Amino acid sequence: MSINKVILIGRLGADPEIRYTLDGKPVATFRIATNEVIIRDGEKEVLTEWHRIVAFGRLAEICGEYLSKGAQVYIEGKLRTRKFEDKQGNQRYITEIVANILQILERKSPPDFESKEISSVQGFKNILEESPLEELEENLLDEEDIPF
User: Is pTM beyond 0.85 here?
Assistant: First the structure.
């Protein structure tokens, strides 16, 4: 048995980017920052880690509608590393979290906004049944996706 589960609470570094696969399925990508405070030589130091998040289907649409830069979110998903070839023919790798649960913890919003949990497990399964993940990935990759 094995487990691939990631749980993060962090803030968006920019508004989510929404794209569509060739067959019209929505995909959201965004990055969140998590912070860790450590004591080094008697002084507090904040370490920031950036995480690339990808969401599919209805969850992607919700990300585009409700998330914006600075929003604090709770994310559950799985870790995935993809391999691709850049324009120069070099093999590259990118690691990301495929989100299946999102909870908006804080955002700049009207006072009547309530935090709610959104799950895309069923929607994500439907997308995978209709179109293999590799096919979705091939339709998404462009030069802006390369982090280096």
Answer: no
